[in-house]
TrEMBL record:
<feature type="transmembrane region" description="Helical">
    <location>
        <begin position="71"/>
        <end position="88"/>
    </location>
</feature>
<dbReference type="InterPro" id="IPR019051">
    <property type="entry name" value="Trp_biosyn_TM_oprn/chp"/>
</dbReference>
<feature type="transmembrane region" description="Helical">
    <location>
        <begin position="43"/>
        <end position="64"/>
    </location>
</feature>
<keyword id="KW-0472">Membrane</keyword>
<feature type="transmembrane region" description="Helical">
    <location>
        <begin position="94"/>
        <end position="117"/>
    </location>
</feature>
<keyword id="KW-0812">Transmembrane</keyword>
<keyword id="KW-1133">Transmembrane helix</keyword>
<dbReference type="Pfam" id="PF09534">
    <property type="entry name" value="Trp_oprn_chp"/>
</dbReference>
<protein>
    <submittedName>
        <fullName>Tryptophan-associated transmembrane protein (Trp_oprn_chp)</fullName>
    </submittedName>
</protein>
């Protein structure tokens, strides 16, 4: 996931810059025409925001855990379908479209990886928690030590009779 998302962002950014088709435009005031390249960002404006989203998802995946990380993975995976669809249906130039499809597939793969294995990945350390969360964690730890001091097993859900 940590490799797939930055590579996906780079591919989507590159696809936005590459030409996806060429158009013939008339020069104002003359009968002459010129051929101009149309970059992917003009045909599919979502490419650059999706690249930024792929980078932001890295931080989100590190900060979240559990269900929230899986929901982030689902969103990233679903949004990865946008450049895949656009690359397959919009434009005529192969390189830009292929790069968009590759970036979308990588984004989709990262999303699936987050959904399937995200609950096992490490989360940001405790020192990055809010002061309230740190106090709650310390209180729980004190309760565990107090239970041990009283001769109870704090790992049991209910104390034995």
């Amino acid at each position: 996931m940590a490799v797939l998302l930055p590579v996906s962002a780079a591919a989507l950014w590159g696809a936005a810059r590459l030409p996806w088709e060429h158009t013939v435009r008339a020069r104002p005031g003359t009968d002459a025409t010129t051929t101009a390249a149309v970059p992917g960002e003009e045909l599919v404006p979502a490419l650059v925001p999706l690249a930024v989203l792929a980078l932001a998802a890295i931080a989100g995946a590190l900060a979240l855990s559990g269900l929230w990380r899986r929901l982030l993975g689902a969103a990233v995976g679903l949004l990865g379908l946008v450049p895949v669809w656009s690359g397959l249906t919009v434009g005529a130039e192969f390189a830009g479209r292929a790069l968009a499809v590759a970036g979308g597939v990588l984004m989709l793969a990262a999303g699936v990886l987050l959904v399937v294995t995200g609950h096992r990945a490490p989360r940001l350390g405790g020192r990055y928690r809010s002061p309230g969360a740190a106090k709650e964690s310390a209180r729980v730890e004190e309760d565990l030590w107090a239970a041990l001091s009283e001769g109870q097993d704090p790992t049991l859900r209910r104390p034995p009779n």
